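Q: Got a minute? One more chain.
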Amino acid sequence: MDMTDGFADEGRELCDAIQACWPEAHVSRSALGETTWSLAPDTLLSVARILQADSRFSFEQLMDVTAVDYLAYGKEDWVTEMATATGFSRARGEGHQDPAVRPRLDGRFEVVYHLLSVSRNERLRLKVFLPPEGPPLVPSLTGIWASADWFEREVFDLFGILFDGHPDLRRILTDYGFIGHPFRKDFPLSGEVEVRYDPESGRVVYEPVSITPRTLVPRVIRNDARYPSTGPGKKEPSHD
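A: Always. Here it is, folded:
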């Protein structure tokens, strides 16, 4: 059990209850008081049933289901001495990445569930890392929380993750003829196709996208004569 020191006392009860039921559980609590449990796909269904029905947990609501694509995680496009910590930037400075936040499996996808216990005023985040082999597949939780129905369809639509046992797993946000999954990291920023109304045929037609792909340059801090910097042994720039 891996927990951050100094979290609020009210979070200990939930963590202790999880540890009592699942001694091998990996539970962490952030400085902001967020409780996160990382588990394998084959244990998700049994764990979810207990979290929903057992009075020690009573997570009556599934608030959200989302996913993360780790396709290029830790593989920067270029390395700089310094890069901005906020805003759009694909560059990073050496040592910027914290190894502690790497996925625990070598797979590409992670499915994230946010649970709420109204009766106990507790929240819990479940992280399920999918193994690298085989299709991205997790059990559906529609039989436990009805709200999982549309949430899982959304994750399937945007990430292409399959939910075994879902009663109607089809797209929910994109068009019927949409190709690919737009939240995957290898999906082109400009998309695959574009649509327009064709007056000659009297209908909407699909065509290959006409936008030229381009790479955006990140905002990088560079040390040269144009950008004087300050620090130990360096002189403040003159404004005279």
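A: Residues 41-53 form the longest helix (13 residues).
Q: Perfect, thanks.
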